[in-house]
Amino acid sequence: MPIPHSYSFARYLSAKKSVDDRALNQHVWQSLVAALPHATPEQPLQILEVGAGLGTMVERLVASAMLTHAAYTAIDLEPTLIAEARHRLPQWATAQGLQVQQDSQAHAWPGGHEIHMQRPGQDIRVATEAIDLLRFVAREQGQRTWDLLIAQALLDLVHVPTTLPALLSLLRPGGLLYCPITFDGGTVFQPEIDLEFDMAIEACYHQTMDRRLVAGKPSGDSRTGRHLFTHLRAAGAEVLAAGSSDWVVFAGPNGYAADEAYFLHFIIHTMHTALAGHPHLDTERFTAWIAQRHAQVEQGTLVYIAHQLDLLGRVSAPLGETRE
Ligand SMILES: C[S@@+](CC[C@H](N)C(=O)[O-])C[C@H]1O[C@@H](n2cnc3c(N)ncnc32)[C@H](O)[C@@H]1O
Fold it and tell me: What is the DSSP letter of 255?
């Protein structure tokens, strides 16, 4: 595909879905399936997803049939993404053969919008809300708890030492935390253009993550995945399963899969924006490097690998308080 003239984060997240599908660690996924408590119509599984984007994880979980009866709360900071999720999820569910009802005035829920999906053996209610996760925690703490908390491709964007304990406080005793696609310090492009310059760009790019400030506070870590082992223990959770979930994107005999050429252009554009004017990178050389990477996508020769980890954790449960 030609180089896009403009970029849409929603289209990027949609294009990312097939890349994530291949990347998700199956051992961690199966450990999650095994650890989930049994759900019933009277006691549906309570799931909270933070930084849910378009709701592609909702789609994945519903499609996998591992969810039978669930009350799913999906929040994201970005109102445009939540609006897109409210548009996209019913369409997706209908195409999958589920019966769908929407309640845009679900008064019991501050987010005010609920999607109800049903088919034999599955009854899922998805409540969505555009809200910052820490504001959500402050509002819900002590009011409600969840069985499972999902944070996909999110924890590398926030200050984990403060965010993780806040999020875990919303889990019931023995509740689970699933954090797949957590970036862990590897950005690889093939073929090499100039190994030394390629490596300098990778190092500078990771440094932008390490130095990221949101509202004046540190919010990012290019090695979040490996650091999660320590953060989880410090926050009182044990690690049940972990494994790599690297993105590997390349063109097969029919070119890049699905919308993955767009995904690659978006990644290159993100790096261009993050590193434009960087004092350690010669501007002309860096501009030429970016143009060459875009051209490689057009030619179908670019291979992109990002190293990531999936972790499954559990908060401790006083004896006799686990839900089976
Ligand atoms: C890389 S995207 C991943 C989206 C989705 N989990 C996925 O994997 O497709 C990170 C998401 O986290 C959201 N986000 C970032 N900071 C947040 C915060 N403080 N509260 C809630 N959402 C946040 C962003 O708006 C974005 O949609």
Answer: B
Beta bridge partners of 148: 47, 176
How many other C-beta atoms lie within 10 A of the C-beta of residue 316?
Answer: 12
At residue 217 the predicted structure's pLDDT band, cuts being 50, 70 and 90, is confident
Name the burial class of residue 245, with classes exposed (0-12), middle (13-18) and buried (19+) by CB atoms within 10 angstroms of its CB. buried
Indicate the top mutation candidate among 17, 76, 160, 259 to test ligand 1's pocket, ranked by most ligand atoms within 8 A of CB: 76
d(Cα 92, Cα 83) in Å, to the nearest integer?
15
Instruction: Read off the tokens for 59.
Output: 């789609």
Task: Read off the pTM.
Answer: 0.96
Residues in the chain: 324
Q: Is residue 307 a contact partner of residue 248, using CB atoms and an 8 Å limit?
A: no
Q: Ligand 1 mean position to 42 CA, how many Å? A: 31
Burial class of residue 208 (count of CB atoms within 10 Å of its CB; 0-12, 13-18, 19+): middle
